[in-house]
Amino acid sequence: MDFKAEFIGQLHLNQQFDFTVKALELFYYQAEHNPVYQLYLQQLGLQPQEVKELEQIPFLPIEFFKSHEVMTNHFVPEITFYSSGTTKQSRSQHLVSQLSWYTTTTKLIFEQAYGPLQEYVVLALLPSYLEQGGSSLVAMVDYFVQQTGQQENGFYLHAHDRLLQSINQAKQRGKKVLLIGVSYALLDWAHKLQGLEDFSGVTIMETGGMKGRRREMIREELHQHLRQGFGVDAIHSEYGMTEMLSQAYSKGDGLFRPGYTMRLLLRDLNDPFDIGGHQRSGGINVIDLANVDSCAFIETKDIGRLHADGSFEVLGRFDNSDIRGCNLLLA
């Protein structure tokens, strides 16, 4: 069995592993077998064997997923995920050798947070993702729908009446209902509803993003509008991205709890190489152990606040200022 298959197999079979041990194991492997990451480390003048702690690991700027094929070992991808964007040239790409590695991980993470998928009917309002194609979120939700064995269709573009009918049918059958949607699409529907329908017992989960359809707003304001429109007490959230295969979930308290394959470290807002637990807020660096095919150590463009129990808040995003300390992006 090769390293990747054995590593993922261990993650799926044992969810109580020592995260630091597995992260360092994957770092040494990717430092040797991922050409882009290897060259990045060389540019920094870092010797992988010198790294003994998570805080010493350099994180690859997320922009590399737009400019390079970030790949550990060479393989023919079974699927390639693309981020939102106007053209494929401006979209990040995430090459994945086996879709089942992704879907199995997402199921385990979701069920840790919410319980068995078989108890749910999963309904999705993700029009922009469906229209552009190549979305990891759509692939995840499609897999969830398959796992539920539900009678209802999973995806709805703009057919709010049919979506409402499906919600009511599922509730009548005693099913839990998960409605997952991109923020602007949920807002559009919430403003039409104005609290006039009964969404009790429905978990409404926003995935972020206005996609240029509405003005950007902070999460608290977004959730206030959604709570009023749907007449619910809490709006749940999912934190994920094309460049990651793991997710974190918030149940409405503003705190995201990362899945078991994911951990966050914060970096100084002005020095991307100053990484450690002493920062209460800073740039979000993600360790995603599910990213065996690509790079598990990602410097995102998000700003967050980290809590002692590993939960975190997302406070905003960096602007498009230049990456400091790296000219490999120009290669």
What can you see in these coordinates?
With 331 residues, this protein is α/β, with parallel strands linked by helices. The protein has two domains: 3-8 and 18-72 and 261-330, no CATH class; 101-250, Rossmann fold, CATH 3.40.50. 33% of the residues lie in helices and 20% in strands. The protein is built from ten helices and 13 strands. Strands 4-5-6-7-8-9 form a six-stranded mixed sheet, with helices on both faces. Strands 1, 10, 11, 12 and 13 form a five-stranded mixed sheet that branches. It has a two-stranded antiparallel sheet with strand order 2-3. Helix 9 (183-193) packs parallel to helix 10 (219-230). The longest helix has 16 residues, at 99-114. The two termini are 35 Å apart.
